[in-house]
Amino acid sequence: MNEDGLRWIYENVVHNFVNFPPLGYVLAVMIGIGVAEGSGLFNAGIRALVLKAPKRLITMSIVLAGVLSHVASEAGYVILIPLGAIIFHALGRHPMAGLAAAFCGVSGGFGANFLIGSIDPVLAGLSQSAAQIIDPSMKVNAAVTFYFSFISGFLIVILGTLVTEKIVEPRLKQYAGNAEKNSS
After folding, report:
1. Residues 6+ apart with CB under 8 A from 98
2. What 3-state DSSP class applies to 43?
3. pLDDT at residue 182, rounded to an integer
4. Is the entire prediction scored with pTM above 0.70?
5. Farthest CA pair distance, the chain
6. What are the pLDDT tens digits along the chain (184 aa)?
7. Those residues with Cβ within 8 angstroms of residue 111's Cβ, 6 or more apart along the chain or in another chain
8. How many Cα atoms occupy the beta-carbon half-sphere of 173 within 13 Å?
9. Nearest-CA neighbor of 68 among 88, 34, 41, 98?
10. pLDDT of residue 29
11. Can you list the pairs that 49-53 forms with residues at least 24 positions away whose Cβ atoms lie under 8 Å?
């Protein structure tokens, strides 16, 4: 980080960007995700998964939808978290517990998922660059962490459901909603 180093970074920014190993994967994946997101496929799928679930499995379906929403990037944070609160409220449960379950699933889904997401090619490219320091012929596939992520996805769903139902929800007071405002 001296004057010559900063000059070199500035002069080679295009070369570094174009030769960044995961760039091709990321562009292809982002085009596919953009088409699916723009068509409403992800939003419809997430809503259908949550709204059609039996009442006793609603927490699990919200956490599962959160994990799967990782493929659609921000769709989980924008759509599912408020939807989780709304569904819990409609079922007479505390909306903050629904919000927490959805947040758990969405946040956990960025590190563990049942599908290859947009971050996987980036991580594979970075791993390939590091591995090529030792073996220049090394190629790392974007699905290199698939098995770990797949199993971890189940752990997120199971643990997120258990923590929400056994720890978070019992500690919340009974939700009164607008009753407090109407009584004053």
Report:
1. 59, 62, 84, 85, 86, 87, 88, 89
2. helix
3. 47
4. no
5. 72
6. 788 888 888 888 888 777 766 666 666 666 776 777 678 776 677 677 777 778 888 899 899 988 888 776 666 787 788 888 888 888 888 999 999 999 999 998 888 888 877 777 778 888 888 888 999 998 888 888 888 889 999 999 999 999 999 999 999 988 777 654 444 4
7. 149, 152
8. 2
9. 41
10. 63
11. 50/80, 50/83, 50/84, 50/87, 51/87
- d(Cα 123, Cα 33) in Å, to the nearest integer? 18
In 10 A of CB 51, how many CB atoms?
12
Residue 54: φ, ψ to 5°: -65, 150
Count how many residues are written for the chain.
184
3-state helix, strand, coil in the chain (%, to 5): 75, 0, 25
Q: How far is CA 162 from the centre of its chain?
A: 19
87 Cβ neighbours under 8 A, 6+ residues apart: 50, 51, 58, 62, 98
Token match 């295009």: residue? Answer: 14
Q: What DSSP element (H or E) covers 21? A: none
Q: What is the DSSP letter of 1?
A: -
Using alpha carbons only, how large is the chain's radius of gyration in Å? 21
Who contacts 131 (Cβ-Cβ below 8 Å, separation ≥6)? 138, 140
Residue 168 vs residues 54, 61, 73: alpha-carbon distances, Å: 21, 17, 26
Cα–Cα distance, 96 to 118 (Å, whole number): 29
